Amino acid sequence: MTTILKNSWLLWLILFLNIKIHAQNAVPDYIVTDDNVKLFTKKSGTGPICIFIHGGPGAWSKSFEDLGGRNLEDHLTMVYYDQRGSGRSEDAKNDDYSLNRMLKDIEEIRIRYNADKVYLLAHSFGGILATNYALQYPSHVKGIILANCTLNLNYSIQNQINYMNTSMGTSYNTPDDSLLNTLIKVRSEFDKKGLVYKLLSDNQKNIDLLHRIDDTNKSSFSFAQKSFANDDYLKDFTIVTNAAAMPVLVITGKKDHAIGEDHYKSFHFPNQTIVKINGGHILYYEQNRDFVHSIVDFIKKQE
């Protein structure tokens, strides 16, 4: 056997054993909320418990887990879950997708895993849930990690419109239309030009990979369909950030056109650390090493 083959075999074995260890530790599960909704959860890793709150609205946790999220499991006990009406979780029986209900779901997950205090790691829209949970249940939060998060959906939608207009040399605006309808129009044109991937990344192959994972999502997308009709989620939550006293790590992408490269500047958490990474909206995959390092460094300072 040549040296190259030996090294390749050894590398394969190391990778296999690492995957096997994680697979044995992972515990797919469902919890039933007090209003009788089954939520998909999965616990894996070692260390302090960290609940991952996915974005969307109405996405799921699998793509984050598969695209580098599980690399945090050497340092954190990750609890992945799919929000009600999303991913592998059930739809709300009574169409209750209110902010308070979504926060209560997180609280019931915390209780289910017997954690007095948890870290919250949110991506994108998940930042709204994480920040509000921390404000409502501050005694149960060790710290918040906001990765490419919006705390003002209207700001982020307008940022997307501006970016696409600039890229195409168009001038879609909102004087006689709603912000959401304008977004739909300009995004449609952006998509026709084959450029819509740029909202998330400079690399279309990475977005194709993301889509291959997300295409396996069999959800009814009930939460996604109802969220923008709910005023709970359309408020500017940057104005309440100064009330969250716990440690906060803000990870922002220098090329995040989905949220807005400068959105973090409106966050005013009293105890915040800001880390800028040269990446887009899915930098957790494309810049995974820097992403994981920034989180591990933050956790070590708290423990």
Short description:
One of its GO terms (biological process) is proteolysis. It is built from ten helices and eight strands. Helix 3 packs across helix 4 (126-136) and helix 5 packs parallel to helix 6.
Structural commentary:
This is Alpha/beta fold hydrolase. GO terms for molecular function: peptidase activity. Pfam families: Abhydrolase_1 (PF00561). 43% of the residues are buried. The chain has a single domain, classed as Rossmann fold. Helix 3 packs across helix 4 (126-136) and helix 5 (153-168) packs parallel to helix 6 (179-192). 39% of the residues lie in helices and 16% in strands. Strand 1 and strand 2 (38-45) form a beta hairpin. Residues 1-24 have low confidence and may be disordered. The protein starts with a helix and ends with a helix. It has an eight-stranded mixed β-sheet, sandwiched between helices. With 303 residues, the chain is α/β, with parallel strands linked by helices. It has helices spanning 3-25, 62-66, 99-112, 126-136, 153-168, 179-192, 204-214, 222-227, 283-286, 288-302; strands spanning 27-32, 38-45, 49-53, 77-81, 118-123, 141-147, 248-253, 272-277. The chain is built from ten helices and eight strands.
